[in-house]
User: Fold this.
Amino acid sequence: MTYSILLSSRHLQNFMEIVAALCVLLAFAVPRLGRTSFSRFRRAFDRIARRPKTAILIAAAFPMLARLALLPVFGFPSPFVHDEFSYLLLGDTFAHGRLANPTPPEWRHFETEYVLLQPTYASQYQPAQGLFLAAGEAVTGHPWWGVWLSMGVMFAAICWALRQTLPGRWALFGACLAAMQFG
Assistant:
């Protein structure tokens, strides 16, 4: 469900490239600008990173709150790629309390990818993402909220996993970078 945002946000990408170029030019023109505020930010970031539970919570909350803030601009994304429709079928099946659906009549004429039609009508994917979609649909009426929740869980898991091999500062930084890329 993210491909539609990536493909429809060309203006946002152009804007971000211009902002990045201006920031680089500003950094070369006035190198000491923002040094004190950056030092304060780094100290606060280090304080958060030293506490594992807080760092993992921040890693989960950061992309969730950012996407929530962008919801009025981008809205709920529409399914765009074949596998997204299959995941939605899986989530809808679980939300209605079923593990699979009956085979539709005239199933030989039903053309779709990543969906099993025999012996039952079901998605071919593993159930975890479908369970999140079902939770979103059951609780709020829209499966997107399940995706939103799963993103927070994913970035919390990334931060937790990185903490096993990297110092806390770098684990939190890596989770935040992943959140900016995928969240």
Observations:
- The radius of gyration is 21 Å.
